[in-house]
Amino acid sequence: MNLNTSNPTAVDQMVEKAVLDLGIPPCPAILNRFMAETRKEEPDYHRLASIICSDVSLSASLIKTANSPYFGARQRVRSVNEALVILGLNIASRAVAGIILRKSFPTVPNMERFWDASSRFARLSGWLALQLRPVGLPAEDAYTFGLFRDCGIPVLLKRLPSYSSVLNSANNEAELGFTQVEDAVLPTNHAMVGCVLAQSWWLPEEICLAIRHHHDRSVLATTTSPPPLLSRKLIAVTQLAEHLVQQQLGLSLTREWGKLGETCLNLLDLEASQLEALALEAAPVIAADE
Fold it and tell me: What structural domains does the chain harbor?
């Protein structure tokens, strides 16, 4: 899949090579084995559980995810087998990918707040998708996109010492698009990097394209060209989740809602006047620990 459309250009290929040269972590062997098993006609749950159990911290994290209030388990999940049953293979495979992603950057300092915020955005995005059923947005896709939306940031923090100051400037920019700030001083941006990582980690095309374009105002507002409507709705619901979290907990420092909020509300068929009531309903989801 091309980063922008289904027709690769020389420029796209050059950009993708530059992104890959940054050292995006390859899809880990344990995730490859897990995903290969889930794609069989009759996946073996015992084999899947065995794959996960080969990594103690991954096992614990998946059980913790299954016990999250978002997934609504009626009783405490105590084993990987139970977690797989509660979550289902689709969500479980994406949760596993998200957990492994977090573990792939142990040397990037001061990232706990970032990962906690990403997990919160993911849960809230999935919850919002369930509340906004007429929008037709699968909750598992919203959850996955929330986990991976900003996965390019730790890659750039690890590889480019100057990126921390660029990130700070982009977070505080009120007019220019976030990635425009990055593009002005870097050979790429976190959305492009995240898209390439998502492609190599088995994520669906619509999610990869949403990652690629999640700061692009013109793409978000389009009705006649790629990315697909699902990708644009994914961007919208997670942007709304970030906005609600920012209001209640102050976990996000970006100023993106002022640039993208109106378009996001249109995509989700929401009025600004509905946000206060929605925020009240979302408060327990936002406040919940993982």
Answer: 11-25+109-287 (1.10.3210.10), 29-103 (no CATH)
